[in-house]
Amino acid sequence: MALPAFFVPRSGMSPPDGLFHGDLSRQLDMLLASGASAPDAIFALGHAPALERGPGDTAIWFSSTSGVGASRHARAAAHDALIQLAGQDGYPMPLTLWFNGLRKRVANALGTPEASVFLTPSVCEGRALARFLATALLGRPPVEIVTAPEECGDRPGAHCASIQHVLELRDPEGAPLSSESVDEQALDFAVRALSEDETLLVHALDISRTGLSGVSRAAAEAIRRSARGRALILRDASEFRARPADLAADLERGLMVLVSGARFMGGPAPCAALVVPPQLARALDEAEPLFDPDVSPARFDAPASLRRLFADGFDALMNVGLGLRWTGALADMDRYFATPEQTRDRILDAFGRRARAMAARREFVDVEPRSIDDDDPLRASIVALFPRDPRGGRVGAIGAAAIRAAMALPRPEIAGDAICHLGAPVATGGGAVLPLAASAPMVTEIHARMNRGISFDRATAPVWRDLETLFGKWEALFG
Question: What is the DSSP letter of 243?
Answer without folding.
Answer: -
